[in-house]
Amino acid sequence: MVKKAIVAGILAGLVLVAIFQQFYKIEEPQAIEASKATTGIGAGMVAPNFKLKNLAGEEVSLKDYRGKKVMLNFWATWCPPCKEEMPAMEQFYKEKSKDVEILAVNLDPQNNVKSFVKDNNLTFPILLDQDGSTQQTYSIISIPTTLIIDEQGLILKKHIGSMTYDQMQELTK
After folding, report:
1. Are 172 and 69 in contact (CB under 8 A)?
2. Of 27-36, 62-71, 123-132, which range is least confident?
3. How far apart are CA 111 and CA 133, in angstroms?
4. How many Cα neighbours within 13 Å face the side chain of 78?
């Protein structure tokens, strides 16, 4: 009899906890303004310049894109959320590259990035952070992370996590 009462009490407690969690669930933000992020650089700051090689071995500098809005994305080939957003990034690039440039900084160049790009039919610029210095400069601790940089090189917004096509459109307005 005592065992049944204990089991019933435990089950009732678990049900109450589940109900409480459901009603007091805190939604995570879809986008985080860089100025409100707990780590890294903030909105209104000049995006630190970098020079990285693309898949063809050519050196690319962020400063080369002054005068154009940039969506700077940090990702890795092994990252499921990164893989999830790649088709949306490709669609966005095909439709919006006149207005917004995508620079996708790969953080695991030791893997076969060229094969990943080919298998996923990606045409936007892929840059390789060979030594992790750009990741460190931008204090990237979670991927994918995307920064929106305006035409003057100022960081406007920061998004942590994968994005849909609609979110990309909204962030780059």
Report:
1. yes
2. 27-36
3. 17
4. 5
